[in-house]
């Protein structure tokens, strides 16, 4: 894909979602880390409902380690995989206290060492909490990038991240990450993408395929109807 096409995609998404942002509610790096950890295989909307009360009860890492894992499990039980996540949070907070003075480390290499914090979570934290440009590849970013041909169909999550970093100007990484998510969450959905009204249909290989299939189906239906 040439740079002009990439620019066309980025500018179109900017026009569609100029205010795209992190939708996980948080007030600091620590709350964001907990929220992103909880968001694995769970919607941001559900996480926000849970953290509304959670962040009132727990303000610091010490607050989390001061209660039993069973109590924390009950506080987050509406979240998918809540038992594993409760263990991760307990262990993460203990490490923050013992090794980082209770603060979330700013370095990506240090963040990924924390329990329950993978590359995606670390990228979200460094970009949103510490202002370091990064592209976090979640299910929306991966799906949209592949449909639009920004990356290959068979690329791994890490390959998707690396290719996007090469094709997108560094200063636009974080904003593009948010816009790709908004585009995938509200427009180019997994099951029902809005191809018929999509301003990027001209560069979308998935959209062209879907529209062609839809046209063929309609023609067959019209032919069958006319024969009756």
From TrEMBL:
InterPro entries: DNA_glycosylase, Endonuclease-III-like_CS2, Endonuclease3_FeS-loop_motif, HhH-GPD_domain, HhH_base_excis_C, HhH_motif, Nth
UniProt name for this protein: Endonuclease III
Residues involved in [4Fe-4S] cluster binding: 188, 195, 198, 204
Function summary: DNA repair enzyme that has both DNA N-glycosylase activity and AP-lyase activity. The DNA N-glycosylase activity releases various damaged pyrimidines from DNA by cleaving the N-glycosidic bond, leaving an AP (apurinic/apyrimidinic) site. The AP-lyase activity cleaves the phosphodiester bond 3' to the AP site by a beta-elimination, leaving a 3'-terminal unsaturated sugar and a product with a terminal 5'-phosphate.
Cofactor binding note: Binds 1 [4Fe-4S] cluster.
Enzyme class: lyase
Assigned EC number: 4.2.99.18
Gene coding for it: nth
């Amino acid at each position: 894909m040439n740079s002009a096409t990439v620019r066309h995609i980025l500018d179109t998404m900017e026009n569609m979602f100029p205010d795209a942002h992190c939708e996980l509610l948080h007030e600091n790096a620590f709350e964001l880390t907990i929220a992103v950890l909880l968001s694995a295989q769970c919607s941001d909307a559900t996480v926000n409902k849970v953290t509304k009360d959670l962040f009132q009860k727990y303000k610091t890492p010490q607050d989390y380690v001061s209660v039993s894992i069973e109590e924390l499990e009950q506080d987050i039980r509406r979240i998918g995989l809540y038992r594993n996540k409760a263990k991760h949070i307990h262990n993460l907070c203990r490490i923050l206290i013992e090794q980082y003075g209770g603060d979330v480390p700013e370095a990506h290499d240090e963040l990924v060492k924390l329990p329950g914090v993978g590359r995606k979570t670390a990228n979200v934290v460094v970009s949103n909490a510490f202002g370091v440009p990064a592209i976090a590849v979640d299910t929306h970013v991966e799906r949209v990038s592949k449909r639009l041909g920004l990356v290959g169909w068979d690329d791994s999550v890490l390959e998707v991240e690396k290719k996007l970093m090469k094709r997108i100007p560094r200063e636009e990484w974080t904003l593009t990450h948010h816009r790709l998510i908004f585009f995938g969450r509200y427009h180019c959905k997994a099951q029902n993408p809005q191809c018929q009204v999509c301003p990027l249909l001209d560069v979308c290989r998935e959209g062209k395929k879907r529209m062609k299939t839809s046209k063929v189906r309609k023609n067959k239906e019209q032919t069958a109807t006319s024969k009756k």
